[in-house]
Amino acid sequence: MPTLDDQHDDIDLSKAQTEAEWLARLDELGEEVGDFIPLGTRHAAFGLHGSEAVLLVSFENAATIRAAGGRQRPMGYEIAVAQGWSALVFVARGDTWFRDAAVWDHMDRLIDDGFFDGFDRVVFFGAGACGYAAAAYSVAAPGCTVLTVAPRATLDTARADWDTRFPQARRLDFTTRFGYAPQMCEAADKVFLIHDPARRLDSMHASLFAGGNVTRLRTRWLGPDTARELTSMGVLVPAIEMAGSATLDRRSFFRLFRQRHSFATYLTRLALRTEALQRPRLTAIAARAALTLVRSERLSEILARAEAALEARAETV
Prior knowledge:
Layout: H1 4-7, H2 19-33, E1 34-39, E2 43-48, E3 54-61, H3 62-67, H4 75-83, E4 86-92, H5 101-112, E5 121-127, H6 129-137, E6 145-149, H7 157-160, H8 181-184, E7 190-195, H9 200-207, E8 214-218, H10 226-233, H11 236-244, H12 250-257, H13 264-276, H14 280-291, H15 297-316
Parallel strand pairs: 3-4, 3-5, 5-6, 6-7, 7-8
Antiparallel strand pairs: 1-2, 2-4
């Protein structure tokens, strides 16, 4: 039986030459499967009308979607189609952090219309700046599940003057509507916060989410783009699917995260990091595992140094 996605494969977003053309094609797809509502000049809400059981609300960046290749469709849409869910995708043009009155007003209309009440389960998802938005706007659907990857709590200098990575975004207003993400997600049933504890500033943001509904899922040594690494490992999409089926918890996530042990990029990073920490046994384990997946002169050299260090230690015993 053809799926909803099969029925609209003729709307090919990947053929768009510009972001404006891509948005026009997304608008066309929205008219076919749900709706597409421009929100000012820098945002849009794209909807997929599917099952009333689960609604996936995702916050995504147009440039990131297009850079991912493939059919260049929002992740939230692709997951919802595969699962038979409904989807509401907020798309941003540029690094807006979704701090826009047009987005606030649209969310207010959805709340007033009782939109979120029409679903058995609502999941908010986002990563990075989009993860901030997922947590901040989740207040619109009390009792929802929030899944965020490396979210920022705020860029309000009164609360996070230590994060200077985003100088342009620090000029935005994080103090008014839907402002402080940790406070906004207090009404959620569960908040799953994935972050790399080796990323100091990400960990500082994570520490600000301190509610009893928060489960921190620490994924050490995934690098600066945690969401991309989890996607490449085949971890992120199943985690979102588990959130939608109410089966996500600490145990199920880390069972899924074991896939990192067969991911060459992660094992290489682990070998480099443990070598820097002078832990040759762990370095040798990581390097050997990585070399079963890829051929690398650099990894071979790392392994040789680790084995030499282990032999030297054995001789001194």
